[in-house]
Specification:
The chain is α/β, with parallel strands linked by helices. It has helices at residues 18-34, 61-70, 83-86, 90-100, 122-132, 151-159, 163-170, 186-189, 273-292, and strands spanning 6-10, 37-43, 75-79, 103-109, 135-139, 143-144, 147-148, 174-181, 195-198, 208-216, 219-228, 239-244, 255-266.
Length: 295
């Protein structure tokens, strides 16, 4: 039976990319070897939001929690980053953590910072661990193809539409999540109904058309997604609109997770709706071919 001690992975872990996955898996493996519990300690909002930075996230809190648990964590401790926490000294922050968990080992990345103004770093974490009676393991930088894997790099790739490269670093397709809201229903009028996704605070890919897979509850559907302003019909606001293949279901009010598999083409303004319809039919056939080759 497991003791109530914890090996705890520390970090924001936005994206839960390959480097994050390695760190969390090491925490899970360490806990299993020691016969203790594993946990992920993280924040529900990015600390930079408290200094008025607008953050575009790679994952929602629900996505992060699901991914942590899929990696084998016994517990996810996700709390708001508040002004009170922001003003804690490094030692005070570790005391807060100790009040929430009986710490055996803390596992953090090489660039982990904690405490007021980021005063605590990996070396200080090791030193304080010795003083406070727990172990500390610091993970080395994680490289793929000779480049450091980071959430910043993944954001840049997605914004360029290079979603396949982003998928390599994430070890899964980048997925936007949001509720389906009403739009102008132009797609339905021309025979290709779309679900307009209300994406809040998530990274948007480059404008264009993508082969996608859409998850609704426990079901997954092949789909085609357009990101952009719909210039053919005089649109002026960026939207994310997904056409579920072989379905005309009304999805209004549901929450969807749209995974970007590959960009089919960039956004284009067509001369009229008939030309647009021909292109949509072509995009759908292209998406079908792409999705057949991807598990």
């Amino acid at each position: 039976m497991k003791k109530e001690k914890y090996a705890i992975a520390l970090g924001m872990f936005d994206g839960v990319h390959a480097g994050h996955r390695a760190l969390i898996s090491n925490a899970v493996d360490l806990a299993a070897r020691k016969g203790i519990c594993s946990a992920v300690f993280t924040f529900s909002n990015h600390p930079l939001e408290l200094i008025n930075r607008n953050i575009s996230y790679l994952t929602t809190n629900e996505q992060r929690e699901r991914l942590f648990l899929e990696l084998g964590a016994d517990r996810v401790d996700m709390i708001p980053f508040t002004e009170q926490i922001r003003n804690l000294s490094p030692v005070e922050f570790l005391h807060l953590l100790g009040e929430r968990h009986q710490i055996d080992t803390l596992i953090a990345g090489f660039n982990y910072s904690f405490g007021k103004a980021g005063a605590g770093n990996a070396e200080l974490l090791k030193k304080l661990g010795q003083e406070l009676g727990f172990n500390v393991e610091i993970e080395e930088p994680f490289f793929m193809d000779g480049e450091l894997v980071s959430s910043t790099r993944i954001r840049e790739l997605i914004k360029k539409g290079e979603v396949e490269k982003a998928q390599d670093l994430l070890k899964r397709p980048y997925a936007m999540t949001g509720a389906v809201v009403h739009n102008r229903r132009i797609g339905r009028r021309i025979g290709y109904p779309t679900a307009n996704l209300n994406v809040k605070n998530m990274v948007l890919p480059a404008d264009g058309v993508y082969a996608t897979r859409t998850r609704i509850d426990s079901l997954t559907f092949d789909s085609v997604t357009n990101v952009g302003c719909n210039p053919t019909v005089g649109g002026s606001t960026r939207t994310v609109e997904t056409h579920i293949l072989n379905s005309n279901a009304d999805l209004y009010g549901l929450t969807m997770e749209v995974g970007l598999i590959k960009q089919i083409r960039s956004e284009k303004k067509f001369s009229d709706l008939d030309e647009l319809k021909i292109q949509i039919a072509s995009d759908i056939e292209t998406a079908k071919k792409i999705l057949k080759t991807v598990k």
